[in-house]
Structure formats: structure tokens, C-alpha cells
Design goal:
Catalyzes the cleavage of L-allo-threonine and L-threonine to glycine and acetaldehyde. Residues 356-385 are annotated as: Disordered. The chain has 385 residues and is α/β, with parallel strands linked by helices. The chain has a domain at 26-262: Type I PLP-dependent aspartate aminotransferase-like (Major domain) (Aspartate Aminotransferase, domain 2), CATH 3.40.640. Helices cover 36% and strands 14% of the residues. A seven-stranded mixed sheet has the order 1-7-6-5-4-2-3, sandwiched between helices. It has a four-stranded antiparallel sheet with strand order 8-9-11-10, covered by helices on one side. Helix 7 links the parallel strand 4 and strand 5. Helix 1 (26-35) packs across helix 10, helix 2 (47-60) packs parallel to helix 10 (250-260) and helix 11 (264-283) runs parallel beside helix 13 (339-355). The chain is globular. The two termini are 35 Å apart.
């Protein structure tokens, strides 16, 4: 083995572990600072919350009901609890965040509604899996399916297209299911697909969207958007009971104004997606490196040769490894990821690969860099954030 460089960085300003690592984008920060002048009514009665809610209605081109909560877990859990009674069940992909990474919060806030897991390639739910889960039993001893939860983009960084969503929502309607969308990275899906936000939400048949802001440049805060206003009845009480009614609500809502003005939210998503594409393009040129799933957002899932991930960690790079599947690493780009940081990661990786002797490419995927995909495993070893 070749000698490692004598001096390696131990701390880097930007990382690829999570888009939660990034700070607040300037536009959101400026909007929060502007909202900090003077007094405003509390508990969402302020002008900022009303203004941003109206902007979201303009964005989605429909008279939706909007609520602001602190984080994605509360958004998903309270929205699903609104759709379900305790004797109902929630259908979702086996890798969905509501199942693997929310500590049972959806079931807790729904007073016991059971989550039922569905398989599917590339992190996506298939219509036939929904139909099977609903029709496999109809007796009173089985928790009655009531909601379908879809993650856009998925936990594997893949995006549901307009047609895919339309078929899934039509299937859900056929079996009397309401459709919830976990949109922690919804902006990245819109940017990748190049569609109007309405086309992959209410026009497709989605009832409620948890629109993520934290991963797109906010400090904190998600918007729960009900496209069926009847479903939002008394949701404000649910937020209060769940500890999600901010007294100084303007500091949750006002930063959204910075994101929504001049489509900053979309610009941020396009940039993080572009950085992921830059990273993936570089990875495809390196021997022994396998990209595991199609790169359709700001995530790149990769399989390195043995020992390489550990060597990159030692060089100061942070990223998750072994969470989706043993040996797979997830590299996340953010709204503030710089091209030179992507290039620095790739340069370090090339040095590590050379030092380890340049192993042969893995054979699990049919063709490296072609987007060939294995079916998602059901086992999880920890949360991705």
C-alpha cells in the first residue's frame, strides 16, 4: 500500500453527510431579519404568516390550507394522524422516513394507526403493491387501510414522475385511500422533473403535502399544505396539542417568503441537484466505484471498494455508510455546495483509490454508471437525515 499524505484535513466547512448540515440561505435570513422589526400578533395571526400562506396558494394555483410546524417528523405525523383513526393503517414504502426514522411518531400521534410496509424498486411504491395490501384482508381483525404515504423524492434519491404519481393516486382513490406526500426534498423533485408543483401534488391526486423547507435553505420549519381544505378542519388544534403551534409564528413563516420570492426555493434545489450530477459524473470515471441508484435529486448513493469509505472519513469527509444496505454510502449535496468542494472530494477519493491499489469494479450492478438498480432491501441499520 502506498503511503498516505503526511498532512490531511481534519475538519471541512462543507460536507456530504446531509443537506441538514447547510446553513440558512441569505434570502431566508434576510426575511427573518425583516420580520424581527416591531411587534406582531402571536400564534400565526401575524401578517407574515398570512402573506406566506397566500404565496403558497399562488405557487400551487389552488385555495389550499397551510400550516407551519417545526420539523418534518411533526409535519408527517400530524398530517397522517388527521387522515386516520386509530383502527386504520398507513401504507408506505419499506424504506420510507415515516417508518425508519421517526421513532414511531406517526403511529403515536395517530393513537395507534398501524404502518404497513410495501416493497418496490428504487425506493418507490408500486400500484400493485398498494392493491395487494388493501385487498389481502378485509376482516375486522385487520387494521383497515386508510392512507397511502409517498416520499417525493424517495429515500434513495429517486423521483416519482407525473404519470407514476397519477397511477398511484388513482389506485389509492379506487380503494378509498387518502394520499399523503412526505416532501422533505419536494423542491428537488420539482427541479429534476421540470414540472409545475401542482402537477405532482393536487392535480395528480395528493391530498396533503409536507413541504420541506429545512433542507432547502431554512433554519427550521416545514409547511403542511392541505389541498382538500375539509381535511384540515381542526388541524390547528392538533398542532397545538402536538407542541407545534409556535407563539412567535412569524419566525417560522417569514423565512419562507425569502425562499418563495423569485423562486429561490427552486434555484436552491436546482443547484444542489446540479452538484449531485457533477459528483456522480466524477465518480463514474473512478475504477471500483459503483453508483447504486439513478441520480435524480441531490443524493448520490455509491458503493466504494473495501476500506475506501473509512479512509475518506479519516481525511475529514463526513457521509453516511451502511444505512440503506451494507457497504452503500450516501453523499448529499446542499443548496450551498460548491463545485470546488465536489472536485476536492473526488481528488481525495482518487488518491485513496490509488493508495489501495485500484480494485476491480463491483459486479452487483449490471453496468457501472448506467442507472441499473437492485431492489431495495428491507433491513435498516439506522436513520438517514
Amino acid at each position: 500500500m502506498k503511503d498516505e499524505p503526511s498532512s490531511v484535513p481534519t475538519r471541512r466547512l462543507r460536507q456530504f453527510a446531509s443537506d441538514n448540515y447547510a446553513g440558512i440561505c441569505p434570502e431566508a435570513w434576510a426575511a427573518m431579519a425583516e420580520a424581527n422589526h416591531g411587534h406582531e400578533p402571536s400564534y400565526g395571526e401575524d401578517r407574515w404568516t398570512q402573506l406566506v400562506s397566500d404565496r403558497l396558494r399562488e405557487l400551487f394555483e389552488t385555495d389550499c390550507e397551510v400550516f407551519f410546524v417545526f420539523n418534518g417528523t411533526s409535519a408527517n405525523s400530524l398530517a397522517l394522524a388527521t387522515l386516520c383513526q386509530p383502527y386504520h393503517s398507513i401504507l408506505c414504502h419499506e424504506l420510507a422516513h415515516v417508518e425508519t426514522s421517526e421513532c414511531g411518531a406517526p403511529e403515536f400521534f395517530a393513537n395507534g394507526s398501524k404502518i404497513l410496509l410495501l416493497p418496490g424498486p428504487q425506493g418507490k411504491v408500486l400500484p400493485e403493491a398498494v392493491a395487494h395490501a388493501v385487498t389481502r384482508r378485509s376482516d375486522i381483525h385487520y387494521p383497515k387501510p386508510r392512507a397511502l404515504s409517498l416520499t417525493q423524492v424517495t429515500e434513495l434519491g429517486t423521483a416519482y414522475g407525473v404519470e407514476e404519481l397519477g397511477v398511484l393516486c388513482e389506485t389509492a382513490r379506487r380503494y378509498g385511500l387518502r394520499v399523503h406526500m412526505d416532501g422533505a426534498r419536494f423542491a428537488n423533485a420539482v427541479a429534476y422533473l421540470g414540472v409545475h408543483p401542482a402537477d405532482i401534488t393536487w392535480r395528480a391526486g395528493v391530498d396533503v403535502l409536507c413541504f420541506g423547507g429545512t433542507k432547502n435553505g431554512l433554519a427550521v420549519g416545514e409547511a403542511v399544505v392541505f389541498f382538500d381544505r375539509d381535511l384540515a378542519r381542526e388541524f390547528d388544534y392538533r398542532c397545538k396539542q402536538g407542541g407545534q403551534l409556535a407563539s412567535k409564528m412569524r419566525f417560522l413563516s417569514a423565512p419562507w417568503l425569502g425562499l418563495l420570492k423569485d423562486d429561490v426555493w427552486l434555484r436552491n434545489a436546482r443547484h444542489s441537484n446540479a452538484m449531485a450530477q457533477r459528483l456522480a459524473a466524477g465518480l463514474r470515471t473512478l475504477p471500483g466505484v459503483e453508483i447504486c441508484y439513478p441520480v435524480e435529486s441531490n443524493a448520490v448513493f455509491v458503493r466504494f471498494p473495501p476500506g475506501v469509505a473509512e479512509a475518506m472519513h479519516q481525511r475529514g469527509w463526513h457521509f453516511y455508510t451502511g444505512v440503506i444496505s451494507p457497504g452503500e454510502s450516501r453523499l448529499m449535496c446542499s443548496w450551498d455546495t460548491r463545485p470546488e468542494e465536489v472536485d476536492a472530494f473526488l481528488a481525495d477519493l482518487q488518491q485513496v483509490l490509488q493508495a489501495t491499489g485500484g480494485p476491480e469494479p463491483h459486479r452487483e450492478t449490471a453496468a457501472k454508471g448506467t442507472g441499473a438498480v437492485r431492489r431495495s432491501p428491507s433491513a435498516q441499520t439506522g436513520p438517514l437525515k
